Amino acid sequence: MPNIDILVLAVVQGITEFLPVSSSGHLILVPKLFCWPDQGLTLDVAAHIGTLVAVLVYFWRDVANMGGGLVKLARGKRDNRARMVWLLLVASVPALAVGFVLDRWAGDALRDERIIAATLIGFGILLYLADRLGLTVRRIEHMTAGSALAIGFFQCLAFIPGTSRSGITMTMARLLGYERKEAARFSFLLSIPTIAAAGLYKGYQLVSSGNFAEMERAAMMAGFSAVTGFLAIAFMMYWLRRASFAPFVAYRIILGLVLLWSIYGGWQSACP
Predict the structure, then answer these.
(1) Percent of the chain at pLDDT above 90?
(2) Are 192 and 53 contacting, i.e. CB atoms less than 8 angstroms apart?
(3) pTM > 0.85
(4) Residue pLDDT, tens place only, 193-248
(5) H runs (alpha helix) in the chain
(6) Distance of alpha carbon 161 from alpha carbon 262, whole angstroms
(7) Which one, 89, 160, 172, 259, has least CB within 10 Å?
(8) Under 8 Å between Cβ of 175 and 219
(9) Who's near 97: CB < 8 A, 6+ residues apart?
């Protein structure tokens, strides 16, 4: 794969992982549009590592606070900072279980352009309604285990390409009445165990396969994904302090309609 392809896919991964527009959908559609081959397991692992680094760096204070809370908890002292770790673990359990089952039994059955188009439009509209109707009265400090679990169950929908992990978790958080920036903050923190688990699982598959080729390109993929992911998080947090999710909803609907037109309107791919 030429380096320009890696650069484009890394940028796409880094940006769309944290904006509510679906990274999985874009990573399926972009290679098809440019007739590029599948990026392969090595680069897939690298992309996950890059986006994980991005969220760890941006939210380093939250990560440090959670670590300090766990240290005190291990010493037998109660610390409210460890509560966030508990909420993230509760919210992660459904997706970890569903993801394992789907990987073993569903494979690539859901990687269909019609499904992507439908989820882009449908879950985009749901995000808009949740943002318009949801109250803005709660912060993460108010979150209960029940709310975290509800967000975790919604996160399972992100295994359907086109849904968007960040988008669907923010949707549920807004339905529960959390402020926009707080919904985004919890969604991004929730990506830490989610992306780490996916990266470890794919890394295990990579080690088992014994295929360690393209390590230099994998490093490029991780680096570019980390930088663009960090910028995407910073932009999203800045935007949601001042505005709504409406532009992202509009983008999802337009992309979904264009995709439907390409499927049913007679557009022919130039790929051999």
Answers:
(1) 62
(2) no
(3) yes
(4) 999 988 888 788 777 876 666 678 888 999 999 999 999 999 999 999 999 999 99
(5) 3-16, 23-34, 40-58, 60-74, 83-105, 113-133, 145-155, 165-175, 180-209, 215-240, 246-264
(6) 17
(7) 89
(8) no
(9) none
